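Repro case for the chain-ordering regression, as requested:
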Amino acid sequence: MEELKQQLKEIIVRDLKLQDVKPADINDDAPLFEEGMGLDSLDAVEMVVLIQKHFGVQIEDMDEGKEAFRSINALAQFIMQRRAGK
Amino acid sequence: MKKKVAVSAAEMMLLADLTVPADFDRALRRADDFIKLAVVSAGRALNNAPPRLLAPSETGIFIGTAYGPLETNFCSLGSLIDDGEGQISPTLFSHSVYNAAAGYVSRLLTIHGPALTLTTYAWPFVVALDQARLAILSARIKRAVVIAVETYSGLLEDAFKRWHGLAEVPWQPGAVAWILEAADDISVCPLLAEIGITETACEPGQLLARAGEHWQGDSLVAGFGSHPMAYAFALTTAMDLLISSKTVKHPAEWLLDAPFGQARISLVF
Amino acid sequence: MRQDSRSERVGTRERVAVTGLGSISAAGKDVPELLASLAARRVRSGPVPPWLFTTALKYPVFAGPREVVTSTARFLLDQAAPHFLPETVSRTVLLALSATAEGLAQAGVDLALLRSCRVGIAFGTTVGCTFHNEEYYNAWRHGLQPDLQPVRYFLGANLAAALHAILGTRGPAAVVTNACASGTDAIGLARDWLNSGQCDIAIAGGADELSRVAYNGFVSLMLADTAPCRPFSDDRQGLNLGEGSGVIILESAALLSRRKHHCLGWVRGYGAASDAWHPTAPHPEGRGLKDALAIALADADIEASAISFVNAHGTGTKANDLAETTALKDFLPEHLCPPVVSTKGITGHTLGAAGGIEAVLTLMALRAGIIPGTVGCHNPDPGFPIRPLPEPEQQSLNGRIGISQSLAFGGGNAVLVLEAAL
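-- result from build under test --
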C-alpha cells in the first residue's frame, strides 16, 4: 500500500507536470482537486488515462473518478479493490 | 470605416532566447514551446505598448501560423500508437489543436475579446495583421495582439532535408508579436493604411524552402536567413525601428515577393 | 429595433448578401437532403465505417458519404480543373469542394463570373489542417525514411489555397483554426472582407473529416457518448463526432444589384470573444459567449428582442449545454424567449464544419419560419435556466432574424446574426 501511494505521488508530479511540487509534499489525505492540489478537470481525465496505463484499472466515468480522486489514500484503495476484483 | 489602425509595439523572440516569467510557471505547466512563445512574446509586446484603459473584451488576439503546434500533434499520435485506443493523452490531444495558444494568451494576459488563429503557408503573420486591422476598423475591438509563431517539428525537418538533399535546415523557431491600436487619437505611431495578400499556387516544397522570397521597403532589411519566419522577423525589426525613431516620415510601402505570391503593407505616419 | 429590416445598410455599412448555400454531412449530400433529415428527425449515426479508419471503440459517429465528390462538384471540376485528381487532396478539401459547388450553383455564379471577380475564400477546420498520418509518423520515429507523399499532401491541404487553385480564382484566403468555432469565425471574417471592399464575392464556411486521432481524443477527454448524442437532454452523456462541410456564398450589395440574383438573406452581424478560463472547459456561466453575443448584436445594430431563433452549439456534453443555456438566460428577453435548438443530433459534432453547416440550417429555418426541436432531446434538462425546444415539438418563428453560435476548446466563442430575405 505504501509503495503504491509513493508510486501514485510520483506519477502525479511527473505526468501532470507539477514542477513546483515534490512527491513527498503530497499529504495522503489531502484533496487532489480544486482547493487541495489545485488540479482541474483536464488533470482528472489525464489521471483516468494514467491509472489505466500504469495499473490496468479502468475508471468508467467522472462519478467514479470523483470518488477515486478524493485523495491519495482513496485512489490507492480504489486501485487495490479493483485489482482484487471487487 | 473612418478609423485608423496604428502599431504601438513590435517584439520578436527566438525559441533559443525564451524564458518563462516565474509567475507563469504553474499556468504554463502543460504548455508546449508553441504556447510559451506566443504567451511570452505577446506579454512583452503589451508591456512595451503605451498603457491604455480598456475593458478586457476590447482587446483581441490574432495568431498566424503555418505549421501550428506540430510537435505536440506528433506526440499525441505517438500516445495513440503506444498507449492504444481510448488511451491517447487528453492533455496532448487538447494542446495539439491549433488555437490552444490563443486560449492561453487570453487567459494569462486577461484578454477577453475575439481570438482568431489563422493557418496559411505563405505569410500567416500578414494574414493575421490584416484580420486584426479589419476587426479594429469594424469597431468590434480597440486593440489587437497580433502574433506569429512557428516551432516546426523534427519530422518536418527530416522530410525537408531528404526532399532537398540538405544536411542542415535553416529554420529559426520563434515568434513575433505586434500591438495594433484603434488610433484616431494616437499620432506618433506608424499607421497600417492597407494590406494586400495574393497567394499563388506552387509546388509544396517551395513553401518550406522559401527560395526566391525577398522583400523591400523603408527600413526593411535582409539578413534574417531564408526560412518561414524570416519575413516576420524582418517586418518586426523594421517596425520596431519606425516606432522608436518617432520621426515623422513620408508614406512607405513594404513589399514581400516570392514564387508563392505577393504581399503589400502600406504605412502612413 | 433601431434599424429598418428592409434597409440595405447596417449602420454605415452596406449589408452583405447571402445568395447560395451548400452542405454535405451524414444528414445528406446537399441542403435539401439536410433539411429533409431535420424534418424527419433522421439519425444516421453508427459505428466508424472501416473505409474511414479502423477502431475497436464503440462510440458512434456521423460519417459522410463514402464518395464525397457529388455530381454537382464533379460538374464544377470538369469545367474548372479537368486534370485535377481528387486523390491528391484530403477528404476535407473534397467535402469543402462539394459544399462550395452546391452553393455556387444556387447562387448562379458560374466560373466565368467567378474568375472575373475578386473571390475571398475563408474556411474553418480542425482536423483538416494537420498531419494525422500515423504510418508516416511511426515509420519516421523508428528511423525509417517513408515516402514523402504524406508530407506533400499535408502541405497541399490548406483549404483556402486548395480551393483557389481548383477554381482558378484570385483573392483573399484564410483558414481559421479556431477548433469548434472555426466555421462561424470564417463566415464572420469573410463578411469583414466584403465590408472593407477586399473582395466582391466570398465562399465561406467550414469543413472537417473524421479522424482516428480526434475520435480517440474526445473519448479520452470523456466527452464522447457511446449512444447517439442527446443535446440538452437530462440524460446526455456527451457528443458524437461527425464530418462534413457547410458553405455560404456571400456577395457585395454592388455585385448583387448588378447581376440581380435572388437574395436568400444577409449576414447582419458577427461577434467573437474569449472565456479566458480553461484549455478545454467552457466558462460555467458562459462569460465569453455573453460577450460575443453582445458584440454580435451591436455589430448587427439590433436588440436581443429582435432575435426569433437561436441555433445553439448544443454538443450534448454536460458542461457545454449548461454553460450555453446559462449565458442565453442572461441574454435573451425573459418573456419572449425564442426557440433554442441544437441540430447536432442529426449531423454529429462536425468540429470546424459545424459553424458552416449550422449557418446554412439557421438561414433555412428563418426562411421557412419554423424549426423542428432538438433531435435526441426528449426531456430537456430541468437544471437549465431556459428550456430548449425538445425533439417532439416544433415552433413557428415570429421574425426573420436569428443567431448561430459556436463554442470552442481554448475558450473561443463566436456568434453570427443572420437575417432571411422574403
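Ordering looks correct now. The longest helix of chain B spans residues 33-48.
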